């Protein structure tokens, strides 16, 4: 009988010692319970992402916002909530920043309201989430801003974009392709010679148009529309002529093609139906052409 009591007492003492040891181990390690790694569609996204680290702020833009400083985090599943989040904003700042070695360094504010509208229509309509890293991802970024908020967007091929501060290298599909626009706005490095006129004409990635009748303008990003300019101009019969005197003023239409960081303008004036002014990065040349050929350039922006 006494032996049974002794055994029970010893067992209780051993159990108490084990409990005490486990409690001490938990307090000393300070480890939180292991949680499941969040999926990409459950990433906590800063509502006020930090601006790019320029070296003078000491902040890391990849770090989430700090709630203690008044910042709030927003959990945005991708892509539906991301699309909704981007669409609800009224972005008042778009800046193209180039850090890629294949281009000359550049910081280009996008200021024309119609071009802003065109770009935002691509940024904000996320069509799906890709499972792979976009090919040929450029060190080229578009910054969107609306006061305190800024979003960094990285450009890939085939309409893919990435949000490096939020989702790392994961790519998202869009309803447009930013790559041709980037190629059109950025210059080649200084060590590369300028491409010939006809090559740049084919390589355009963005067109601004203005029509005098009706006084309306806009931007085109359609590859088919851009090719119409080269297809219409290069094979056409034309003769270089002196500039008219006096210089005409009333524009019938204007096409401004962006290529390799420069511009090529085609301008037709009222009363000069068979003359076309071509300005290659500001250098003007006048051509005498068939008036129907001159008129056909309108179909670049007027075609249905």
Characterization of this structure:
The structure is a single chain. With 304 residues, the chain is of the alpha+beta class. The protein has two domains: 41-51 and 72-185; 197-302, Uncharacterised protein PF16224, DUF4883 (Dna Ligase, domain 1, 2-Layer Sandwich). The chain is built from nine helices and 16 strands. The chain has a seven-stranded antiparallel sheet with strand order 4-3-6-7-8-9-5. A hairpin with a 2-residue loop joins β13 and β14 (262-269). The longest helix is centred in the N-terminal third of the chain and has 28 residues, at 2-29.
Task: Summarize this structure as a short list of keywords or feature phrases.
304 residues; alpha+beta; Dna Ligase, domain 1; 2 domains; 7-stranded antiparallel beta sheet; 16 strands
The total strand number stands at: 16
Distance between the termini: 104 Å
* Order of strands, widest sheet: 4-3-6-7-8-9-5
Count structural domains: 2
- Major β-sheet profile: 7 strands, antiparallel
Could you estimate the helical fraction of the residues in percent?
Answer: 25-40%
The radius of gyration computed from the alpha-carbon positions, rounded to a whole number of angstroms, is: 30 Å
Low-confidence stretches at least 5 residues in length (pLDDT < 50)? Answer: 25-75
Give, in order, the helices and strands: HEEHEEHEEEEHEHHEEHEEEEEHH
Dominant shape? elongated
Structural class: alpha+beta
Strand residues, percent = 25-35%
Number of helices: 9
Mean pLDDT: 75
């Amino acid at each position: 009988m006494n032996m049974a009591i002794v055994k029970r007492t010893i067992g209780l003492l051993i159990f108490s010692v084990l409990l005490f040891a486990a409690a001490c181990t938990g307090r000393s390690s300070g480890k939180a319970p292991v949680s499941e790694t969040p999926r990409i569609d459950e990433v906590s996204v800063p509502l006020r992402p930090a601006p790019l680290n320029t070296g003078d702020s000491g902040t890391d833009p990849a770090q989430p916002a700090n709630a203690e400083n008044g910042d709030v985090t927003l959990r945005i599943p991708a892509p539906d909530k991301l699309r909704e989040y981007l669409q609800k904003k009224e972005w008042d700042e778009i800046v193209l920043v180039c850090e890629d070695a294949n281009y000359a360094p550049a910081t280009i504010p996008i200021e024309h309201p119609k071009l802003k509208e065109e770009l935002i229509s691509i940024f904000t309509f996320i069509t799906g989430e890709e499972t792979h890293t976009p090919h040929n991802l450029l060190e080229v970024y578009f910054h969107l801003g609306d006061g305190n908020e800024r979003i960094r967007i990285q450009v890939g091929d085939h309409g893919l974009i990435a949000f490096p501060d939020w989702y790392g290298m994961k790519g998202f599909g869009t309803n447009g392709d930013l790559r041709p626009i980037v190629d059109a706005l950025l210059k080649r490095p200084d060590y590369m010679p300028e491409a010939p006129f006809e090559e740049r004409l084919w390589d355009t990635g963005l067109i601004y148009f203005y029509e005098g009748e009706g006084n309306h303008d806009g931007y085109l990003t359609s590859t088919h529309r851009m090719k119409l300019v080269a297809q219409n101009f290069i094979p056409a019969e034309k003769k270089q002529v002196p500039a008219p005197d006096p210089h005409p003023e009333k524009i019938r239409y204007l096409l401004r093609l962006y290529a390799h960081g420069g511009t090529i303008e085609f301008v037709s004036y009222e009363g000069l139906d068979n003359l076309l002014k071509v300005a290659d990065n500001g250098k003007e040349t006048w051509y005498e052409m068939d008036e129907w050929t001159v008129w056909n350039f309108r179909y670049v922006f007027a075609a249905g």
